[in-house]
Design goal:
seven-stranded mixed sheet; 7 helices; alpha+beta; binds biotinyl-5-AMP; 272 residues; five-stranded antiparallel sheet
Length: 272
């Protein structure tokens, strides 16, 4: 089980992770933290679990993770911003997570890895998913009263032992580097990086977040299949706009901005 006392002792933050709940088994860290949020838990509260019986992604898709090998946790934010900022907060979290991975590898003298972002919430290495982020919010009067950011990152689970559903699409930091990853240290590094950047991003109302995010996205110009709330369509990815929405050109040449959806296939031949 994750050594929670060690995390508490080593953590150098003033808000994030100062209230920390660690579980051996839970249904979902996001679901639990949403309940705590409704009961008035403070900003920065973190819930971590070694195993989830109902870990999920968007649209109730399952998040699969073997017991005690990876990191599964959720953080509570109370940003006092309009709903419009939700997407940008999620993109900021991906940046923070990518920075943490780089810091960790550097601190352990491991070779750097090329992390790329897939809209809206995936971190990929060599086209395989290393991590997913799920944001769930409690809204009041168009404002974000509380936002729970759930992070699943594959640290130590070897790819060959992953369940067949994800074996061909996922990867883990251990499989990439060949080295075991210290979960306690990684979690502390993430919280520290989060606190440092969260303050910076909030101060500037998330200016530049999208530009920073785009630097790591290599999907622009790709012809893809996009699952939208209104059905699937083929389009060319053009941009991610200032609000963090996906901008694509449909087959009639019309530009569309998508707030929620999914890029399901990116194997179309394109000359763009
Ligand atoms: C996500 O959803 O990628 C967000 C996942 C967030 C999980 C965390 S764990 C802690 C917290 N508590 C929760 O209950 N959730 C959060 P989405 O974009 O919908 O992607 C889900 C898809 O990712 C699945 O349908 C699988 O194809 C794939 N997947 C599932 N488990 C995976 C894994 N361990 N590694 C890589 N891909 C995985």
């Amino acid at each position: 089980m994750l050594n929670c006392d060690k995390v508490r002792a080593d953590l150098r933050t003033s808000i994030f992770g100062r209230t920390l709940y660690c579980f051996q088994v839970i249904d979902s860290t996001n679901a639990y933290l949403l309940t705590l949020a409704r009961d008035g838990a403070p900003e920065g509260t973190v819930v971590q679990a070694d195993f989830q019986t109902a870990g999920h992604g968007r649209q109730k898709r399952r998040w699969l993770s073997a017991p005690g090998q990876n990191l599964l946790f959720s953080i509570l934010l109370k940003p006092e911003l309009e709903i419009d900022y939700s997407k940008k907060i999620m993109l900021a979290t991906a940046i923070i997570l990518a920075n943490t991975i780089e810091n960790y590898l550097q601190a352990h003298q491991l070779d750097p890895v090329q992390i790329s972002f897939k809209w809206p919430n995936d971190l990929l290495v060599n086209g395989r998913k290393l991590s997913g982020i799920l944001a769930e919010s409690i809204l009041r009067d168009k404002k974000i009263e509380a936002m729970v950011l759930g992070i699943g990152i594959n640290l130590n689970e070897p790819v060959e032992k992953m369940p067949p559903e994800i074996r061909d699409i996922a990867t883990s930091l251990r499989s990439i580097t060949g080295q075991p990853i210290d979960r306690e240290e990684f979690l502390c590094m993430f919280m520290q990086e989060f606190e440092k950047n969260y303050e910076r991003f909030e101060r500037n109302f998330y200016d530049h977040v999208v530009d920073e995010w785009k630097e790591r996205c290599d999907q622009f110009g790709q012809k893809v299949t996009i699952r939208t709330p209104f059905g699937e369509e083929i389009g060319i990815i053009k941009d991610v706009n200032e609000s963090g929405y996906l901008v694509y050109e449909d087959q009639k040449g019309v530009l569309k901005a998508l707030i929620a959806g999914e890029i399901t296939k990116s194997n179309h031949v394109t000359d763009v």
